[in-house]
C-alpha cells in the first residue's frame, strides 16, 4: 500500500489522538515550568541567604554585639533582594554538625522565605501559592597574621630567642632580634630572625631565613633551605586588652581577685585584675580569652573545651615581669600563650597545642609546641567567614 494513501486514511484517527493527548502534554509542560520556577526561586533564596550570612559573620564583634553583623548581612541581602522576601537574622545558642561543636558566639544564621505563585500545579493540587525558604549559617574566623602566624614568637628587639635542650616545635619561629637554636632542639618549620641565626649542637630545622648572618656549627642540620632576606622585619605585638576587658565586663566575667578555679569549664572573655594561679591536678576547660592584669602561674592543665573548634583559648598577661607567665609541671595547654610586655618562662614538661607569643621566652624544661595556630585573640588577623550549613 502506498504510504501516503495509508496516512490519508488514518488522518481522522490522528486528529482524535492528538486532541486527546494535547491536554496531557500541556499539563506536563506547565508542570515543568512551575517546578522549574520553584527550583530557580529556591536557588535564588539560597544564594541570598549565603551572601548575607557570609558577609555578616565577618562583622561579629562579640557574643552580645551584633549591630554591625546584622547591618552587613542586611546590606548584602538587599543587593540580591526583590523586596518580597521575609528575612530574619538570628544567632544560635549551640551548633553541632557531624560531631563538631562550633562556638555560637562567632555564628550568624540568615533565614529567607517568600511566597511563589504557581499556574499549572494548582490545577492538580488546588493551591496556587507555595512558601519556599532557605537558611545559611556562617562562622567568623580570623586569618592569623603578625605574631600569631608563628608557633614561637619573641617580640623583643634587644633579647634573642633561644631554643635549646629538648624543645620540639611544629611550625615557624620568629625573633625580632637574634635566634639561637642548640642542643637537641628541633623546629619543623622556618626559623626566622631580624638579626642573626645561630644553629649548634645536634639541632635541626626545616629552613632558615635571616636578615642578618646565618651561622651553622656542630651536627646541626637544615633540611630545606637557608637564605638571607631584607624582607624579615620587626613585627609588632598588638594590644587587645581593652576589647577583652570590655567584653568580659559585658557578660559579668570581670574579677578583682583570683577566682581560684578548680576543674572548671569557662567560656567567653574573662578579665582578672590580680595575679592568677592554676595549680597542679586542676584542669580548666575553656574557649575564649583569659586576660590577667598581673602574672599567671600555671602548673595544671588548660584544655580547649572543643579542640576541633578554631576559636580556642588565649591566655593573656599584661605584666612586664620576668615571670609574666610561668608554666611548670606536667602541663598541657590548648591555645595561645600571650605576654606582649613580659617573659614567658617554661620550667616543666610542657606541651602547648597552639603558640607562644611574648616579648621574651625562656625555656629550661622540656617544651613541645604543636603549632595549630588557634585564633581566639580578638582581631588577631584578617577576618574571614565560612559557611557551616
Automatic annotation (TrEMBL):
Residue ranges of every copy of the Putative Flp pilus-assembly TadG-like N-terminal domain listed in the record: 12-58
Which InterPro entries does the entry link to? DUF7305 (IPR055729), Tad_N (IPR028087)
The region annotated as signal peptide is none
Q: Which residues form the DUF7305 domain?
A: 270-369
Q: Which Pfam families match?
A: DUF7305, Tad
Record protein name field: Cytoskeletal protein CcmA (Bactofilin family)
